Amino acid sequence: MPIPLRQTIRVGAYVVAQHLKGVRRYPLVLMLEPLFRCNLACAGCGKIDYPDAILNQRLSVDECVAAADECGAPMVVIAGGEPLLHREIDEIARRMIAKKKFVYLCTNALLLEKKINLFEPSPYFAWTIHLDGDREDHDRSVCQDGVYDRAVSAIKLAKTCGFRVNINSTLFDTADPERIARFFDNVMEVGIDGITVSPGYAYERAPDQEHFLNRRRTKELFREIFKRDPRRRWSFNQSSLFLDFLAGNQSYHCTPWGNPTRNYFGWQRPCYLLGEGYAKTFTELMEETDWDAYGTGNYEKCANCMVHSGYEATAVMDSVKHPLKAAGIALRGFRTEGEMAPEIPLDRQRPANFVFSRHVEEAMARLGARSQPAQGVRGTS
Ligand code: SF4
User: Fold this and answer.
1) Alpha carbon distance 80, 35 (integer Å)
2) In angstroms, what is the span from residue 274 Cα to ligand 1's centroid?
3) How far is CA 373 from CA 53, 98, 125, 153, in A?
4) Residues spanned by the domain of 248
5) How many domains does the chain have?
6) Nearest-10 crossing angle of helices 89-98, 61-71
7) Ligand 1 centre from 296 Cα, in Å?
């Protein structure tokens, strides 16, 4: 079972409690980026294009714990950069688990063998290993040969040690449905617990700007992929309604506050994918962000987004409100033929605003003003 029953019940109860309390906007998953430094430089990644002084910064264990306390989300995804480069990553995970947060530690797995002894299996902990396809697809995606083989051997090791292990696959317009289907078959045979899959977000700072999917193409691709699993062999670590949305059968608006993101700059506005500004506190993020300024149809940079960090929260909330619809799709599978759900019109979206350089310049000025060396250097393994 990709999502343990304990987690499904706890998260469902949390969503119901928020509704009963009348909370309009609430977080589901804290996206924690304790560092931006990575030991890979993937073509579709827009997360690590920073000067060294910023890449050398780390959130401390206490800052990470404070972020979890501030936002109160029941799940924590630890991303980055490569989290295993953080010297205290095991302590960060341990402190989150002690708070009974469901922790997903995202990694490219290059350091997993070296660091696995720092972690213990727990119902509150799962590895999420980055794998964008078979050997050829993944190594091309991460721009380095041999990474697929190391990731698969890390998955086998983690399973042998008793951990829950998921994979996280980001798909681009180069994805071939037949090969992705075979890849999903193969990883299920390797013994993973679940698959998290999403189209890539068109990061403005990603080195490869040619291969991001638009929404129509995303839906066609997922229909073609899902068609190839008539016997339902693949276990997805995602809600059935989010996957149905990817297949073009649900008209959803994103829920950017559902996965609030904390990193070196602060609380990122409006979402994990877009850094248009930063709030000092979680309350400031929730109360002072002009949420209506973002989302597909509202903002040019959101036009093609169908990413899980923006839409899974919408699907989970829909599942809790309409459990029979969610259960029906989970039982029957996703419709892969026929008309798609109506698309959001783009004719009234505001144009893109490019603010990345200003944030970097301001951060560099702050770092330059400090007399002591950048604290993050201690965290590099
Ligand atoms: S559509 Fe929503 S989740 Fe996607 S980039 Fe825009 S605000 Fe973020």
Assistant:
1) 5
2) 7
3) 9, 32, 34, 37
4) 5-378
5) 1
6) 30
7) 7
**Inter-residue contact 276 to 270 (CB < 8 Å):** yes
User: Strand, coil or helix: what is 98?
Assistant: helix
Q: Using CB atoms within 10 A of its CB, is residue 84 exposed (0-12), middle (13-18) or buried (19+)? A: buried
Closest CA to 45 of 180, 221, 202, 196: 202
Q: Which residues line ligand 1 (CB under 6 A)?
A: 254, 256, 270-271, 273-274, 294-296, 302, 305, 307, 310
- Contact (Cβ atoms closer than 8 angstroms) between residue 84 and residue 129: no
Cα dihedral angle (274, 257, 238, 295), rounded to 10 degrees? -50
| Contact present, 222 and 180 (Cβ < 8 Å) | no
> Residue 375: what are its φ and ψ, rounded to 5°?
-65, -25
SS3 at position 194: strand
Residue to probe by mutation, ligand 1, list 29, 170, 254, most atoms within 8 Å of CB? 254
Cis amide linkage into residue 81, ω under 30° from 0: yes
Digit-coded pLDDT (tens) for 191-238: 999 999 999 988 888 888 888 889 999 999 999 999 999 889 999 999
Pocket test for ligand 1, best of 305, 343, 353 (most atoms within 8 A of CB): 305
Q: Per the structure block, which two tokens stand in for 378? A: 């201690």
Cβ–Cβ under 8 Å, residues 312 and 239: yes
CB 43 within 8 A of CB 207: yes
pLDDT tens per residue across span 41-99: 888 888 888 999 999 999 999 999 999 999 999 999 999 899 999 999 999 999 999 99
State the pTM of this model.
Answer: 0.94
Q: Which residues contact 142 (CB under 8 A, 6 or more apart)?
A: 40, 42, 43, 108, 130, 132
Domain CATH code at residue 286:
3.20.20.70
Residue closest via CA to ligand 1's atom 3 equals 310
Encoding tokens for residue 342?
């109506």
Per-position b or e across 329-339, b if 16+ CB within 10 A of its CB: bbeebbbbeee
CA 198 to ligand 1 centroid distance, Å: 13
